[in-house]
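Many introductory courses stop at the sequence. We go one step further.
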Amino acid sequence: MNSILIKQIKNDNFEKALSLVWQVFQEYEAPDYTKEGIDEFYRSIHDEKYLSMLSMFGAFINEQLIGVIATRSEGTHIALFFVDGKYHRKGIGRKLFYRILENSSVSKLTVNSSPFAIPFYHKLGFCDTDKEQIVNGLRFTPMVYEL
């Protein structure tokens, strides 16, 4: 595989990042959600106030964006984490995750994992902190990673 570059998403790649997030969500996450949950997710990734709170990094191969991770709450919570399906199980997500850790000074990191991503987060070392919940149609399991 070509060299993977992880870099911060700036304004010029922001729309590409959100497009990738939406595409991957529709393919891998939406089948587990109700219409209410799908609509809520769409609203969240188009909410300027919410998006302005995010710090986002992307994985690039030859300038092509193939993965996105975003944190909020001063880097303590993973808000978005999506990798193009063609690149699943190739270490892209792990590289994005480690980049977040490198740029963080927090002692723990939280995430509300979708049903699809639970095995991935467990492989990274996250532990469930509660049972699955549904809020505004979004299904998630709260998790924590202790640094």
